[in-house]
Specification:
436 residues, alpha/beta, Gyrase A, domain 2, Rossmann fold, 6-stranded mixed sheet, cytoplasm
Length: 436
Amino acid sequence: MRTRDTIFALSSGGTPSGVAVIRVSGVKALTIAKQMAGDFKNKRQMLLRSIRSRNGELIDKGLVLIFPGPGSFTGEDCVEFQLHGGRAVVALASSELEALGCRYAEAGEFTQRAFENGKLDLVEVEGLGDLISADTEMQRRLAAEQMAGDLSGRYHAWAKRLTHARAMIEAELDFADEEDIPGSVSDQIWPDLVSLRAEIAAQIQSNKLGQSIRDGFKVVISGPPNAGKSSFLNLMAGRDVAIVTEVAGTTRDIIEIDLDIDGFLIRLIDTAGIRETTDLVEQEGVRRARAALEAADMVLLMSEIDSDPEHTPEVMPPRVIRIGTKLDLKRPAHPERYDLLFSAKSGDGLDEIRAAILSAVKADWESISQMGAGRQRHINHLREASNFVEEALKGSDLVIRAEYLRLAAEALGRITGRVDVEDLLGVIFSEFCVGK
């Protein structure tokens, strides 16, 4: 990305539309606005103007918004043209901007300039990306909190505590004979670092739980063939998404649907019935079913009421709901085997299963709502920081312990983009659409 260039992009989505917003950022932005829309006072303004080409041809009549830097999203001089959203209007305005020395922005380039100019850190950038792509209310809330800077503030506060600890160690090493320097650094900083390590561990757990809010709470439907798994999936979806027959082994592959339940993204995953089989295609379906179980947040373990429970999967997550199916045909002789009962034919028990899923995902939300939740990238760097703090706590040589604290602070700095972020930028900003 060439940061000296003046860039532009359609930021309002595809045409045709009621309104098209063309965003311009860079050193030429205000000059171009004057050329296309006439003179204006060099301050923050919204103007209703005729937008014209270099030869005076009327392109459209619309709003021109002026954002002088650094008080703009990118930190540079910015202009927005709000035009009617016809394809020909946008095409002509874009052609004129190119002729005046602008170039089309690359994906995420506006946001990268905001980062480079100190308007956002990487955690806030990721929150903005999540906010743009949010489909459910809880995804929106999580992204908005991250974009607001609360999570960044926590990481910065931890880094400051590490810097303070290092300063105390340096003071003891360099000025041990001075009266105003504490005699023992351990009394000053090590208890706080023990607390800090515990706080980082709690944040790692919160970030893990946050993945299920951001990417979908994965509920795997498992059990032997003909247990009613696909019928349950169809009822939850409200349409036929899986083939249902009385032939065992009908489901051969993973079938996923996404549901918005009370603002939470729930990803229901129907799997092949787990059993021993000589059919090569069904064997692959069973293998994929087992892989889905390993990645699940919750398993609905379905089996026909009072059937032989020999097909219980080997690997199961902590949250398993045992469901007895075909309730319309029989009542259980051993009700203690099941948490819930269900009939695909009558729908009995469907609301109870839905409520159990919702209760689990709400419990995760309560755990993270006070702490926020970052991405897997955050977890990796937090683990690094935690390990370095642990090494500092175990050590005896003050110089080496101080170096471990420096490395821990560096690991935290990589999360927000304070250090060594060049290799991350291309990946992070490429996730944005052009115009953002």
